[in-house]
Structures are given as structure tokens and as C-alpha cells.
Amino acid sequence: MSTAVDYPPGPRGLPVIGNTVALSRDIFAFFEELRDEYGRVASYDVFGTDACMIAHPDAIQQVLLGNHEAFEKGEVLTRNLADAMGEGLFVSGGEQWQNQRSQVQPAFYRERLTTYVPEMRATAAETVDQWHDGMIVDVNDVMTATTMDVLGRTLFGVDVTDHPVVSEASEAMLARFDTSRFWSFLPDRLPTPTNRRYKRKLGELQEFVDELAQQRREQHPENRGDDLLSILVGFVEASDLSQEEFRDNMVTFLFAGHETTALGLTYTFLCLAQHPDEQAALQAELDAVCDETVTAEDLPKLERLDRVIDEALRLYPPVYMFFREAARDVELQGYTIPEGTTLVLPQWAVHRDPAWWDDPEVFRPKRFAGDPDRPEYAYFPFGGGPRHCIGMRFARMEMKTILATVLDTYTFELVSDPNPDLIASTNLKPGGPIEIELHE
Ligand code: HEM
Predict the structure, then answer these.
(1) Cross-referenced Pfam families, in alphabetical order (predicted)?
(2) Does 13 reside within a domain?
(3) Are the C-beta atoms of residues 216 and 208 closer than 8 Å to each other?
(4) What spacing in Å lies between the alpha carbon of 207 and ligand 1's midpoint?
């Protein structure tokens, strides 16, 4: 057998700007075309930086799990997110990451998570109480507000709806990283209006989280409870976490913890609204499992709801791609990836690859029933390996609780475009409103 020496094949774009123009025009088509024309491990370049797309499940598994020490979060991510969350769990590496992961883990233990369900359910009920028969709801807007509210109440013990700074900073960040705009690939040191707004809003958010910490410190330790904010404040007081690490983790969880879940819900509504039969089946399941309202004990029994969510996250992965960087030369699928190469793992292209999915464009929750015949990493909406999403169970519980609460009172039909434009920002965002009409 010959040893691999080849660099993965790929197109070569225009001099200097490489494939950046094609990438910013339609990043989804770009990765699908790259996959179909050059294979599941293929190369391209952005502004002269070499990058490789890793879209083969076995290679993805190797990067995230089998050989994970050979890969870092990398320069692209670190550079872009340094100001907002450079010292936080999402960006940090090595020992710093390991310490932080074990510090915050207790907030995400299964037993702890189940205690959040009543609050999730109450927040969802407050949203649904404002609805009425025949009303048209913009689901992304409503779910963004609802998930933000849930996050504030469960992990930080604050009513964030009183503090617009959080949603404003979140919007400014999404605008900053919208890949459909050519300049989002430019360094964020350039004082474009979007970058200036992002910096300003981020500063305001950082002041806000410092105030939250101050208020918590003023409480007696015995009265503080054990939410994520108290956990982090406790480690700062014990000098096991710096002020900067504290702040960056607050920003990390505020960002990572609501937008993605809101999008997961939005796309589940988009799919369900076009499948009245599936809504009816879910309502039958809820009737069979739940007494009055949905409880933490009910959630694991709602298996059909699980499959619907799985399928929506396959078709519309809120995190549609993420990055790694090779810390040394590595071999993947017979190719050599040189040290320093940026790797892109595109959920979008893998979740819609006809090699692993029959009729990939079709919404078919049944594919998640039983023991599916496909490679494990053909599906990775929450990443994988040691750095998999720490909020995965939290997000799934929240999505199920909110959907169960809505379906308890309403069915709904789609009144907006069934194939909405999608924006490749920090997350996969709908380009326009996704609207459903409610039927009580
Ligand atoms: C549907 C909802 C969600 C999706 C699709 C999602 C997706 C992901 C993905 C793909 C990663 C891995 C990124 C990588 O390896 O580079 C990740 C990491 C992370 N997620 Fe989530 N996430 C969701 C919800 C949440 C929630 C609710 C929280 C917090 C409450 C959260 C907090 C985090 C954090 C802190 C990390 C970094 C973990 C580490 O590096 O140790 N996520 N998420």
C-alpha cells in the first residue's frame, strides 16, 4: 500500500482572493459542488489561506474523536471571536479548556437539567398564552425571544427581557459574521459600520455581565443557588477563573445558548407546518404520555417528537459548518493535510449527502427510527468528541418542552415561503420571516 502524500484536490479561484467570491455568493452550493466535483475531502482557498473541506463521515469522526488531539479550534475562529469570547469555553484550548469544561459541567448534569423543565414549560406557556386562533406568528422572532428568556431564567437567574442589550449584541454579532456579505471575510480591525456597531454592542454586553456578577457577589453564598452564574462567580472568588474568563464565558453561553436553539425550533416549525399528519401523530403521542402538562419525566417518552427534531436539525442544522486547524501534518482519507491547514466541517453538505440519505431533501422523521444503516458521523448537528456541544441535552429538552406546550393547544400551517432563503451567518438563519397560522 502506498502512503498518502497528496494534498486534497480542489478548484483554484482567482489570484489573491481565491474562492472567496464563490464562497460568499452561496456557501451552501459551494460546499455541495466541492463535494460532488472533487470528493468528500477537498481543498480550496480564501484570501490566499489554504482550507480543506472535510465532508466524509469517517474523516469527520477522526477529526472530532479518534485523532482529536491533532486538531485545534484554530486561527480563523480564534481571531474572529477573540474580542467576544477568546478566553471562554468555546474558543479556549488545552488545559484552560479542560478546566473550564469541568467547572461548568455540573450545570449540565442530567439531574440538574431536569430541574429546569418547569421553568422552560412556564416560559413556553407565557408565550403561547399571548396567541389566539387564526393568529399569524413569525416563529423565528418569537422563538428567539422565548429561548433567550429560558436561558436567562435557568442559567443566570435574570429576566433578560428587561435588558435589550443582550438581543442587540446578538444581532450585531450575526451581522458581523454574515458570510453572504463579502466583507465578513475581512479582518474585524477594519472600521466598517457593522464592525463598529459590533464592538460597541459587545462592550455594552460585557458591562452588563460584569453588573450581573457584582449583584451575585453581593448575595450571601448560601442564598445564591447553584445556577451557571453562581458557579462561575464562585470560581472567580476562589481565583480559579480570571475576570476575563468569567466575562468571556458569560458571553459564550449567552450567544451559544439561545440563537441555535431558537433556530432549531424555527426549522422544526417550518417542517411540521407543512406536515399536518405529523402534527396529529405528535398530539396523539402527547395525549398518551402526558397528564396535564409536559414534565421532565415525560420528555424521554416523547420518542416521535425526538425524531421530528432530529430530522429538522438534519435538514436545517443551525450550526451549518465549523472549523478546525491541523496542529501537525495528518493523514485523512488517503490525503496529507499539512500542519496549519484550516479545516471546514460542513454539516449542511453532509446532512444532505445522497451517499448516506435517501431523498435527502425530503422531511422524513422515520429515518431516525431503529438502527440506521449509515456512518455515525453522517449526522453531527451538535459536533462530536470531547468538544461536542455541552448544551445539547439542555437544547433538546427545551425544544421538546416548547413544542409539546404549543402542540397541546394549537395546530398550525405555513403561510410563508416553504423554501425560505437562508443566510449563512454565525448560524443558519432564515432570510425572511417564517410564518405560521394558528388553529386552536
Ligand atoms: C439546537 C441547539 C444547538 C446546536 C445545534 C449546537 C451546536 C453546537 C456545535 C456543533 C458545537 C461544536 C462546535 C465545535 O466543535 O467547534 C457546540 C459547542 C458548544 N455549544 Fe452548542 N448547540 C446548541 C445549543 C447549545 C446550548 C443550549 C448551549 C448552552 C446552554 C450551548 C453551548 C455550547 C458551548 C459552550 C459549546 C462549546 C463546547 C466546548 O468546546 O467544550 N449550545 N454547539
Answers:
(1) p450
(2) no
(3) no
(4) 24
Domain count of the chain?
1
Residue with cell 459548518: 321
Beta strands 411-414 and 435-439, pairing class: antiparallel
DSSP-assigned letter for residue 357: S
Ligand 1 contacts CB of residue 260 (under 6 A): yes
CATH at residue 227: 1.10.630.10
Centre of ligand 1 from the C-alpha of residue 391, in Å: 6
Those residues with Cβ within 8 angstroms of residue 103's Cβ, 6 or more apart along the chain or in another chain: 231, 232, 235, 240, 241
- Does residue 85 line the site of ligand 1, with CB under 6 A? no
Phi, psi dihedral angles at 363 (to 5 degrees): -80, 110
Give the number of the atom of ligand 1 that is nearest the alpha carbon of residue 324.
16
| Dist CA 81 CA 173 (whole Å) | 10
Q: Classify residue 335: in a domain, yes or no.
A: yes
Per this entry, what is the length of the chain?
A: 440
Per DSSP, the three-state class of 411 is strand
Q: For 293-302, what is the mean pLDDT?
A: 95
Q: Which amino acid is at 249?
A: N
CA-to-CA distance for 51 and 44, rounded, in angstroms? 5
CA–centroid distance, residue 389 to ligand 1 (Å) = 4
Domain that holds residue 328: 20-439
> Would residue 1 count as lying in a domain?
no
Q: Which atom of ligand 1 is nearest to the CA of 252?
A: 35
d(CA 388, ligand 1 centre) in Å: 7
How many other β-carbons are positioned within 10 Å of the β-carbon of residue 213? 18
Contacts of 385 (CB under 8 A, 6+ apart): 64, 65, 68
pLDDT digits over 187-234, tens only? Answer: 556 677 878 888 899 899 999 999 999 989 888 878 888 889 999 998
Confidence band of 1 (pLDDT split at 50, 70, 90): very low
Q: Of 234, 257, 237, whose CA–CA distance to 155 is shortest?
A: 257
Side-chain-side CA neighbours of residue 239 (13 Å): 0
The minimum-distance atom of ligand 1 relative to the CA of 383 is 10
Window from 131-140, 262-271, 335-344 with minimum mean pLDDT: 335-344
Q: How many CA atoms lie within 13 A of 328 on its CB side?
A: 4
Q: Is residue 6 part of a domain?
A: no
The reported pLDDT for the residue numbered 167 is: 83
Query: Nearest 5°: phi and psi at 118?
Result: -55, -40
